[in-house]
Automatic annotation (TrEMBL):
Native source organism of the sequence: Nocardia panacis
Sorted UniProt keywords: ATP-binding, Cell membrane, Ion transport, Iron, Iron transport, Membrane, Molybdenum, Nucleotide-binding, Transport
Alphabetical GO biological process terms: molybdate ion transport
A GO-annotated cellular component: membrane
Segments forming domain ABC transporter: 20-258
Keyword Isomerase: no
InterPro entries xref list: AAA+_ATPase (IPR003593), ABC_SmlMolc_Importer (IPR050093), ABC_transporter-like_ATP-bd (IPR003439), ABC_transporter-like_CS (IPR017871), ABC_transpr_FbpC (IPR015853), Mo/tungstate-bd_C_term_dom (IPR008995), Mop_domain (IPR004606), P-loop_NTPase (IPR027417)
Gene Ontology molecular function: ABC-type ferric iron transporter activity; ATP binding; ATP hydrolysis activity
Domain named Mop: residues: 313-381
PROSITE patterns given in the database record: ABC_TRANSPORTER_1, ABC_TRANSPORTER_2, MOP
Record's protein name: ABC transporter ATP-binding protein
Alphabetized SUPFAM superfamilies for the sequence: MOP-like, P-loop containing nucleoside triphosphate hydrolases
Entries under SMART domains matching the protein: AAA
Length: 382
C-alpha cells in the first residue's frame, strides 16, 4: 500500500490544511575554508536525499546539522527550535538536538548486547530500565532483529549490525535522522534488504521523524526520498522532487546520474526550440518559456544518438564533433563516451550495440560525429 505521505504528515501535525513546511529543517551555513555555502529546507517528516560528487560538502552539511561542526556564519533550525545560530551565539550540543546519526559504520557499543545498545538512548533520556527494554524490543521488531537481542555486536554481520544501528537511532524518537551513506559499507547482496527496510521505516508510519540521506546512489534517492538536493563544490546546484530533478537536470552531476546528455547554453530567440551551446545551434522540442539570452538546457538520451565516421549530410539532425574517450560495456550495450567538453562538463554519450561498434571500428581517441534528431531533444529553461 502506498502511504499518502502528505495526508499522514497532516495527521501527525494535527493540521487540516496544507502542511506547515516552516516547521521542518532550515539550514543556512557558510564555512569559508571549505568553500561551503549551502541553504536548504526540508518539511517536517520529509526524506531529503543529498547527492553530489566526492568532496562536494555532503558530510560537512551533516556535521553542521548534527552540531559537530560550527559554521562561520548561518543557522540550523529544526521544528522551529534554533539549534545553531552563529550571530546569536546559539550552539545546542549534539546530544540535545533531537537528531540521530546513522553512519556507514554501525558504531555499536561492543560491550553491550543488541537490546542494551538499543535501550541505551531511552535510558540516557531518563526512561526506567523496564520501559527502555520494551522500547528496545519494539524497535528491534520494527527492523526485524528481535532474534538478535541477546547477541553482542561482534556476533553480527554487517547488515545485521546496520539494522540494529537503525533501531538504536530511532529508539530515541529523534525529530530528524541523518543517514550518511548507510548502504555503502554493506555487501551488494545485503544492501537491497537494508534499503527496503529503510523505506518501510522512514516512509511508513513507524518512524515519525524527517531524514537527510547522503548517498552516491541514485537508487537510494529514487526509492527513499521525497526530494533531492544536489551539492557541487559546496553549493546547492539542484533541488526539487526526485523525478523532476532527473527529468529536467540542470547540473552535469544530475544529468550523469539520470543517464542523459545535458548541454547548457543560451537562447538565441525567445521560446524557440534552439539553443546556442559553444556557438553551435542545438534544435529540439520546446518545453516551457524563456527570453532571448536566457540560460536553456538541451537534454537527450544516449540511446537517441547515432554515431558516424563522416559528418551526416543533408539530414535534419543535430551533429556534434566528438573525440571518443572510452567505450564501456553496460550489459550488452556499449556506452560510447566523448571527451569532456571545453567547459569541463561531461562528454556526450551514445549507446550502441556491440555489432555497431565493431562495424564502425570505434576505439578511444577516434574523432567521430554524434547525430541526434531534433524530435529526440528536449529544450527547457534552467
Ligand atoms: N576536517 C576537514 N578540514 C578541512 N577541510 C575539510 C575537512 N573535511 C573535509 N574538508 C573539505 O571540505 C570539502 C567538503 O568535504 P566533504 O567531506 O563534506 O565532502 P563530501 O561531499 O562528503 O565528500 P565524499 O563524497 O567524498 O564523502 C572538501 O573540499 C574537503 O576537502
Amino acid at each position: 500500500m502506498r502511504i499518502d505521505r502528505d495526508a499522514w504528515l497532516r495527521r501527525r501535525s494535527g493540521a487540516s490544511g496544507p502542511i506547515d513546511r516552516g516547521h521542518g529543517l532550515e539550514v543556512a551555513a557558510r564555512l569559508d575554508d571549505r568553500g561551503f555555502d549551502v541553504e536548504l529546507t526540508a518539511a517536517a517528516g520529509e526524506v531529503l536525499a543529498v547527492l553530489g560528487p566526492n568532496g562536494a560538502g555532503k558530510s560537512t552539511l551533516l556535521n553542521v546539522i548534527a552540531g559537530l561542526l560550527r559554521p562561520d556564519a548561518g543557522y540550523v533550525r529544526l521544528g522551529g527550535r534554533m539549534l545553531t545560530d552563529v550571530a546569536g551565539a546559539v550552539a545546542v550540543p549534539p546530544h540535545r538536538r533531537g537528531i540521530s546519526l546513522l553512519a556507514q559504520d554501525s558504531l555499536l557499543f561492543p560491550h553491550l548486547t543488541v537490546a542494551q545498545n538499543v535501550a541505551f538512548g531511552p535510558r540516557s533520556g531518563g526512561m526506567r530500565a523496564a520501559g527502555a527494554r520494551v522500547v528496545a524490543r519494539e524497535w528491534l521488531a520494527a527492523v526485524d532483529a528481535v532474534e538478535l537481542a541477546g547477541r553482542r555486536p561482534a556476533q553480527l554481520s554487517g547488515g545485521q549490525a546496520q539494522r540494529v544501528a537503525l533501531a538504536r537511532a530511532l529508539a530515541v524518537r529523534p525529530d530528524l535522522i541523518l543517514l550518511d551513506e548507510p548502504m555503502a559499507a554493506l555487501d551488494v547482496a545485503v544492501a537491497p534488504a537494508m534499503r527496503a527496510l529503510l523505506r518501510r521505516v522512514l516512509r511508513g508510519t513507524e518512524a515519525t521523524c524527517g531524514a537527510v540521506l547522503v548517498t552516491h546512489d541514485i537508487i537510494d534517492a529514487l526509492t527513499l526520498a521525497d526530494r533531492l538536493v544536489v551539492i557541487e563544490a559546496g553549493r546547492v546546484v539542484e533541488s526539487g522532487p526526485v523525478s523532476t530533478v532527473l527529468a529536467r537536470p540542470r547540473s552535469g552531476f544530475a544529468a550523469r546520474v539520470a543517464g542523459v546528455n545535458l548541454l547548457v547554453g543560451v537562447a538565441a530567440t525567445a521560446s524557440a526550440g534552439s539553443v546556442l551551446v559553444d556557438g553551435v545551434e542545438v534544435h529540439g522540442r520546446v518545453d516551457g518559456q524563456w527570453g532571448a539570452g536566457d540560460r536553456v538546457a538541451a537534454v537527450f538520451a544516449p540511446t537517441a544518438v547515432a554515431v558516424h565516421l563522416e559528418p551526416p549530410e543533408g539530414s535534419p539532425r543535430n551533429t556534434f564533433r566528438v573525440r571518443i574517450a572510452e567505450l564501456a560495456d553496460r550489459g550488452g550495450i556499449i556506452r560510447v563516451r566523448g571527451a569532456d567538453r571545453p567547459d569541463g562538463s561531461p562528454g556526450l554519450a551514445a549507446d550502441l550495440t556491440p555489432a555497431a561498434v565493431a562495424e564502425l571500428d570505434l576505439t578511444p581517441g577516434l574523432p567521430v560525429h554524434f547525430a541526434v534528431k531534433a524530435t529526440e531533444v528536449h529544450v527547457y529553461p534552467c
